[in-house]
Amino acid sequence: MTMRTDSSEPCTLNTTAKNSGEKIAILDCGAQYTKVIDRRVREMNVETEIFPLNVQPDRLRDGFSGIIISGGPNSVYEKNAPKCHPDLFKLNLPVFGICYGMQLLNLALGGTVQSGTTKEYGETVIQVQPDSSLFKGLEQNQQVLMSHGDRIDALAPGFSVVAESAGGGQQERIVAAMANPEAKIYGVQFHPEVELTEHGTDMLKNFLYEVCQVSGLFQLKDRIEMAIEDIQQTVGDKDVFVLVSGGVDSSVTAALLVRALGPERVYAVHIDSGFMRHQESDGVCEALQAIGLKNLRRIDAADYFFNGMAEVNGKTIGPLSTLTDPEQKRRIIGDVFYQMIQKAMAEADFDLDNAFIAQGTLRPDLIESGNRSVSETAHKIKTHHNDVPIIQEHREKGLIIEPNKDWHKDEVREVGRQLGLSEELVSRQPFPGPGLAIRILCVDKPYITNKFEATQKALKEKASAKGYDSLLLPVKSVGVQGDGRSYSYLAILAPQQPERLQNWDELKNLARDIPNHLHTVNRVAVILDGQPLPEQCQTITPTTLQSETVDKLRRVDHQVTSAFRAAGIHDDISQLLTVLVPVDMSGEKGHSVAIRAVVTSDYMTARPASLGKEIPLAFIQHLANILSDEPGMDRVMYDITSKPPATVEWE
Known about the structure:
The protein is of the alpha/beta class.
């Protein structure tokens, strides 16, 4: 089935018009990475403007040098798939289609797209044609981030293949890039905007400067001044309430508010939900007082959260301590946070219906929540506590202040440095609002579908061929595949010879290949403790958010963090976390623990820190042996999956 445009015929190209603009139009197809494209282009001193995919071409006729069409979660041949106006390609503007964008332009211009038998999620090596303008100055082999399930079947007239991926092998070559140099239209199946594509910025720069021939004179206005002006214009003479977790995002928000309004008009609340790490709230409050917050209140609210309830679609869910669904957990935590803010505001005599509330929301938070203000078509990957319906309602009234909403994590850190915040605070690793609550996989029964046995058999065959034993665990975690949310199985590997743990490249390739070929798996971990795997595991340890369970994870998390700090490797990791996994392979109703250490700059994509290189093997194996000796603790594993196909967090 093919997607129909408003015309019954494929779009044709008009190569006679002329345009001399200096702005790039980014058309959003619902990609998780649309804002990353925007950011990368602006970093190259080129102005951008984001439009919905179905923008009227006349809006792009004057003042634009080119068009970038983003990726997206849909298949172009689906009945209701996002589509562009049929006259878009008649503007004689250079066009660069990314992932879904490439498939869309190929289909619109007379080519065909089909579902691929092989999915590609994660880092992939492709072969490019260096003589193409898009790959000027690059080597033939390029590592890129693939995230797709469909493929080009037949090229549109006038196009040629300028890069290929091996896909499922030599019999299934996948079009990784296509080009029509005469029409100045290019498409890539991968994501050049993310850091996992090693030379992606060079490819984008080639499109901008070689194809669009921009001059690169655009400069962003100072971010701090823009944020301060926006706060002052929005708030007027009113005071602001700000929820501060102590992380860099909320701390920068608080510092901007103090700079914009003065310390007397900023009322900060730190809520200890009971899901904080070891002595976390003590350190948070000390750091917040140091940035000039005078009206700071700490609320110890563990009982409120454990017993929290929420209304969802007319039904009451909760209490939190009884739930297993991660989205319901996030929803209740978000609602209780807001309820605690309301309580604190009422006690401070604020008008609940008209008061301003500030929070440290980042662009990726809104993107992954599927927020309509960011993208009309992006899929929700997971609910963020700062984007639950109650917050959305307050945002619609214009009463939510989010100075960071257009920024990514590393940009916020730089703003923090410019504001004079301490490096300890600015470089602090992210800790999610729901805290340890989403690092405990809560289950009441094994997750076993009719695909479990077949997936486990295929997993064993693939792992064994590489010298690894394997196991499919009857639990699931959240991922992002093809710009859409997945909620799939966890695969475990154990080397048949201990020395195989030293072969990081082999492990990394397995972690990529397994989800690509076994589509019900989105996360892969390797056992660190050297103990053999059982033949199968179809039982779980019933687990919910009880105080003793949270205490168990808090204790293990503190051990892991302290060990990484003592080894001098903590600061080289972007985010370190531990996850309590409700599986005991010895059958004693205990838990296993997963260590997750990733390296990233923007958190939209991430790679696992390499074993044997960034994390010494002797160190992490010794740590695993210590953890496995803890009461009620079974196995210790290390998450070796990139984002995508897995998210950084497990829930």
